[in-house]
Every structure is written in structure tokens, then in C-alpha cells.
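# nightly structure sweep
# worker-07 picked up a monomer target from the shared queue
# config: single-sequence mode, recycle default, output format = C-alpha cells
# input follows
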Amino acid sequence: MNLFRAILVLMTIAILSITFIVGYNHGWSLIPIFFGDIASLTWSGQFNLDFTCYLILSALWLAWRDHFSIQALVLAAIASVAGIMFFAPYLIFLSYKCNGNLKLMLVGESRN
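# output follows
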């Protein structure tokens, strides 16, 4: 579990670092570029669509795990936009909350 947590920390640091560098150098108007790439039917667009599917899937899992409660829906909305910047720290939080119990992390307390 400690290795998993360390990987999540590295992911968070990497994505935050790159995000700030790209935002500083190229501006913060991601949405037109992101969806423009998808519309262009290029490899960048293919990757962006694949990433969008991942974001939707992770948001659905977050909502499902906590029975689509208001809190779960708010977290899912954040995850669907923030991606690994939110998801990795959330998994670190869950890993401690669940005392490293992977099954509990995945399915939540009431389904365990």
C-alpha cells in the first residue's frame, strides 16, 4: 500500500507541475483546445476522447461507491473535471480512511 501511495503522490506532483507550466506558458483556455483536438480526428483528439471516457468512468465509480449521495455527486463532478489532480489525492485519503483495505477502498463500507 505504501508503494501505491507513493505512486499517487508522484502522479499528483507531476500533473500539478506540468499543469502550472503549461498554463503559464500557453494560457488557461484548455476547453477549446481539448475539444478542438477531438473534432480534428487526430491522435491528440483520440487521446483526449479516451481521457474523457476515463474521467466519466472515474466519476461514475466515485458516485456509485457512495450510493450517489449528494457528497458523492459533488466529488464525481470534481473528478470529472480535475482528473488525476483530484483522483490521486482522493485515493490517498481513502487508503488511510480504509486502513489500506483495498476492497473497502473500491466498494465502500456498506458493500464490504
